[in-house]
UniProtKB/TrEMBL annotation:
NCBIfam families: dephospho-CoA kinase. Belongs to the CoaE family. This is Dephospho-CoA kinase domain-containing protein. The lineage of its organism: Eukaryota, Metazoa, Chordata, Craniata, Vertebrata. GO terms for cellular component: cytoplasm. It comes from Sus scrofa.
Amino acid sequence: MFLVGLTGGIASGKSSVLQVLQQLGCAVIDVDVIARHVVQPGYPAHRRIVEAFGTEVLLENGDIDRKALGDLIFNQPDRRHLLNAITHPEICREMTKETFKYFLRGYRYVILDVPLLFETKKLLKYMKHTVVVYCDRDTQLARLMQRNNLKQEDAEARIKAQLPLEDKARMARHVLDNSGEWSVTKRQLDPQGGKFLRGWDPERMRPVLSHPRSTYTLNPDRALPRADPCLEGEKQPSVSSYTFPPSPGPSLQEQAQNRVHEGP
Ligand SMILES: CC(C)(COP(=O)(O)OP(=O)(O)OC[C@H]1O[C@@H](n2cnc3c(N)ncnc32)[C@H](O)[C@@H]1O)[C@@H](O)C(=O)NCCC(=O)NCCS
Ligand SMILES: Nc1ncnc2c1ncn2[C@@H]1O[C@H](COP(=O)(O)OP(=O)(O)OP(=O)(O)O)[C@@H](O)[C@H]1O
């Protein structure tokens, strides 16, 4: 199995791109969704956030007040590092579980939207490809202010909390420019002729089963096809026509993204 690290700057368009990839049938994991999941009341990270930041970062119903916590951490690097130290190990554990679920379902590629991929660097060594969703600084600022209803100085603080997007674009293997109209970006993801990745064909990112042929020699009628683990390889039959392994149901990502995301 191969991992594709999708990253970018705040509000550069990662989630919008990820949603299209999901609609095309790719296995996707949005780390921001996981980050929201692991700080729910009752989870260890929730308790540790309250211990570290006090009850002023809680809403009346006990949920984390994301606006209040964001205002604190985006303006104070030491508090941001503290929040990262609390949440990142939990996020990483959950992300590994979600990736493994896709592995069990026969996917050869999983696309991970990791906003801080180049800041933390920890996951870089596991990525077969890295893709930066880029947009120019003015566009990023305008989209962030509009989406989050932020004043310019607050939006600038959020942008400054990350590496400059130009630097990330230099570090990535592929860059998807999302500075212009959404239709232009979407064209780059088109299954026919889109330039998202070299040899881009979402069909090849769909599941196949990879089992040694010998496992099934007792009953040749039930033999499963062997996987070709390469993007440029032959197309494989879909996993949906086989009964093993059983599907563990929709992933955390699928449940969350079906519920919340509406696209640009
Ligand atoms: C600070 C929080 C409460 C703000 O919540 P909010 O709902 O306003 O934003 P959301 O979670 O949707 O994040 C939006 C974007 O902010 C940026 N961002 C989030 N956390 C950080 C951080 N610690 N450092 C730099 N940028 C960050 C990312 O680009 C992310 O995509 C939240 O982002 C959080 O809990 N962050 C810590 C976990 C984390 O590092 N998440 C990023 C992915 S690992
Ligand atoms: N090409 C585009 N044209 C116009 N609006 C866009 C375009 N791409 C994204 N947007 C809008 O910009 C905002 C940011 O996009 P999106 O949420 O996908 O970014 P993101 O990188 O996932 O953000 P974050 O880092 O905060 O999670 C959203 O309101 C989205 O609808």
